[in-house]
Amino acid sequence: MPPAMSPPKSILKPSFTVSKDTPTAPTLSWEERNRQVALRHAHSLQHRKDIETRNLDSTEILLEFPSSPSASPSVPSSADLQMIKDALKTFQPSDFDALVEERNIDCRCGYMLCPRRNRSPGSCGKYRIVTGRKDIDFKVVDPKELARWCSDECGKMALYLRVQLSVEPAWTREWKDEKSLELYTEKEERRARERRHGQPNSSILVTGPESRGEDVQARMRDLAVERGDKNDVDRVSGKVVVNVKESKGRGAPVPPSIEDNQGGAIEGYVPTCKKISKRISGEEEYPEDIIPMI
Q1: Phi and psi (nearest 5°) for 7?
Q2: Is residue 95 predicted with pLDDT exceeding 90?
Q3: What is the DSSP letter of 255?
Q4: Cβ contact 172:51 at 8 Å
Q5: Number of Cα atoms under 13 Å in the Cβ half of residue 233
Q6: Is the peptide bond before 66 cis (omega within 30 degrees of 0)?
Q7: Cα separations (Å) of 252 from 105, 248, 249, 275?
Q8: What is the reported pLDDT for 62?
Q9: DSSP label at residue 140
Q10: Residue 181: closest CA among 157, 200, 205
Q11: Residue 80: other Cβ atoms inside 10 A
Q12: Phi/psi at 117 (nearest 5 deg)?
């Protein structure tokens, strides 16, 4: 009688059994599920509509900025500064470009904190060459780009705000918890404070020859350690000890002779072929007429 075979084992994971005491989620009907999905989409669309309405209202307010016609773009008022930072939180770069375009249509500088008029694009040429501090530093720019601002400084400050804006729409991110925007002037002040605090005795700045000499010596010491020099003591003062010795001669110099003992040599090489040697020395005679030979 053949032995009894054990039943095959299943490769599937064992199913979990739910006890009677475990609370189960109430099963929703088909109509209730559809209702919840529709409400979720409706809330999302309403939130997007609220953000777009907020951006439109902020654009209308920022068209009249700054609040004072004599305001300075580099030193804005605290009220205008706070208003701009709050308004631009929900902006995308495309919204910022639309705001600049609207201000240019109203003959205003594209930078929101500048009360001056924008530059005229002009009608001469499709492109314009803008030179920098040196004559070799120049770039070809579209006149429409220059006409967006009243000056290059305002354009720099405005574009610094633009690069901080998020490309992601505000209705898909938590824009209220994001970090506040930073102006270009605030960045320069922050860097100046970091430089002052990072340098010891920042109130007394020594910029004379002595400070430059100490800086050179410190760099020389660091370079010697990096190279692995052992004699670093000689380089403490920034100098290297050099001993110059005169070489001893091997005798009186002999002038070259005029006689050529190797006549017929080509740059010092004497050809070994007899025929070539005869031609060089002039011993071989050439026929007067070489045409019959050809």
Answers
A1: -65, 145
A2: yes
A3: P
A4: no
A5: 0
A6: yes
A7: 92, 11, 8, 42
A8: 92
A9: E
A10: 157
A11: 17
A12: -80, 155
Mean pLDDT (whole number) for 221-237 = 61
H-state helical runs in the chain: 30-62, 78-87, 93-105, 143-146, 152-162, 184-198, 209-227, 274-281
Are 120 and 147 a contacting pair, CB within 8 Å? yes
pLDDT at 110 over 70: yes
Q: Which residues pair with 153 in a beta bridge?
A: none
* Residues in contact with 116: Cβ distance below 8 Å, sequence separation at least 6, in sequence order: 108, 109, 150, 154
pLDDT of residue 158: 92
* 263 close to 281: Cβ distance less than 8 angstroms: yes
Instruction: Among 130-139, 144-153, 165-174, name the one with the lowest average pLDDT.
Output: 130-139
**Is a pLDDT exceeding 60 seen at residue 190?**
yes
Greater model confidence, 13 or 236: 13
pLDDT at 97: 93
| The residue type at 33 | R
pLDDT per position as a tens digit, 164-185 = 998 999 888 888 888 888 898 8
β-partners of residue 140 are: 129
CA 81, CA 202: separation in Å to the nearest integer?
A: 30
Q: How far is Cα of residue 258 from the mean position of the Cα atoms in its chain?
A: 69
